[in-house]
Fold this sequence. Notes:
Region (Disordered): 211-263
Helix content: over 70%
Keywords: Coiled coil
Protein name: Helix-hairpin-helix domain-containing protein
Coiled coil: 134-197
Strand content: under 5%
Largest sheet: none
Number of strands: 0
Distance between the termini: 99 Å
Shape: rod-shaped
Structural class: mainly alpha
GO molecular function: nucleotide binding
Radius of gyration: 64 Å
Amino acid sequence: MFDVQRAAIEGSQQLVERSFATRGTVSRMALTGVKSQESLQRQQLELAQAMAHGTVGTMTAMVPGGNQDPIQEGIDESFGQLKTTHAEFYDVLERELERDVESVDELSAEFTDAMETSTDRLLESSRELEGQTVENVGELASQLRDQLERTRELQDELETQLEHRTEDVEKLLETQADQIDAIQEQLEERAEQARDAGATSIPIDSDRALEGIDGIGTTTSERLSEAGITSVDDLTETDPETVAEAAEVSTSQAREWIDQAEA
């Protein structure tokens, strides 16, 4: 792109220089042509004057006693004035053309110098701009690469965080599912107790299974058994924290079971 611009600038300069050179050539050719035309016309005037003298001489010779001198003098006077006017006209014309040639040469020289200076500046500016553009393009490409790398790092970080959060959500769902199971067991136990309308308080035999405790169902009993708590007596001899951890319930719930077992 910059090479094309520089070629266009140099071409414009050459075109202007050729234009001035052409005008100067035309002016010089016009001056040469005027001089040739002036010489030819002067010769034609002299020839016409000679022919006029010859004609007058012939006619006077045919007239007896004719005097041709006054006529010849009139012819010379007329042609003399015509030659003077002709010479003055071409002198003025030649001076104008010579001044035009000189003006064209001076203007061409001045403009050519100014054009060369301006063209050199334009070419230098074009080279500087090209260098800056190449440098800026390289810098921009580097910035884009850095930005792409940061984007990839951010994407990897987000994917890692998403994986961790997914694991946390899965664990939370499992915990909630266990809690729902425990609540469901408690509801089932209480529903069984509600069906026994006549029973307000059922003494708990220490030899009975853990399912006799309000809120302990089959699943919870199995969890307690795995921890070595298989009977009501075992329950009363175990601290609430251990019971809560084994049954995967709150400490307050475990303490309530122990209170029932001790009643």
